[in-house]
Write a sequence for this structure.
């Protein structure tokens, strides 16, 4: 589903589980929380399932009976929101180094600048508990911010992204200063590597 489909038919709020539609938690808060859960950790999957489906602390019976199918459908629904703005060419990988690329955005570390940009550009206070917004609407607005030159989110992502091609010494120094200013907290792997170097 792309942005035009969402505009024409509305943002989806159900997934099919066992051949029947089941409502997902379509609010942006539940889905931001889902973004912070490590999908590679099998023990975290029940939390992800609760995050995407639970109502009043309980899973719908159909979801509980078909947890694997339900989780796959809900994650696919959730991830589809990332494709609402498809501009430019995606840069994947760390240049063939075999290392995981350094993240350029983190929901937890960047929450304040996301909130500030929503307030500044859209007049929406996402920190207000009364603010309700569908995940797909939130992501359409968020993805636009990542491409808005004077948005804080855009500046942070740009500063953390690697320079491409040959650059002058001045450009490299400026990029280094920006990267330092907008640096994310070290990842767990980086902390482990730093500890190994120290001893």
């Amino acid at each position: 589903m792309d942005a035009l489909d969402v505009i024409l038919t509305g943002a989806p709020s159900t997934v099919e589980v066992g051949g029947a539609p089941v409502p997902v938690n379509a609010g942006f808060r539940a889905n931001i929380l889902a973004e912070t859960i490590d999908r590679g950790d099998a023990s975290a999957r029940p939390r992800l399932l609760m995050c995407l489906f639970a109502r009043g602390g309980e899973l719908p019976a159909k979801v509980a009976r078909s947890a694997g199918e339900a989780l796959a459908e809900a994650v696919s629904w959730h991830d589809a929101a990332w494709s609402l703005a498809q501009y430019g060419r995606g840069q994947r990988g760390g240049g063939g180094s075999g290392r995981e690329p350094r993240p350029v955005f983190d929901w937890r570390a960047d929450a304040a600048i996301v909130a500030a940009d929503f307030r500044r550009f859209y007049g929406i206070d996402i920190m207000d508990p009364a603010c309700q917004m569908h995940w797909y609407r939130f992501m359409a607005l968020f993805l636009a911010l990542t491409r808005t030159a004077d948005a804080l989110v855009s500046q942070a992502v740009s500063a953390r992204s690697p320079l491409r091609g040959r650059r002058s010494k001045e450009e490299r120094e400026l990029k280094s200063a920006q990267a330092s200013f907008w640096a994310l907290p070290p990842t767990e792997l980086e902390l482990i590597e730093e500890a190994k170097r120290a001893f």
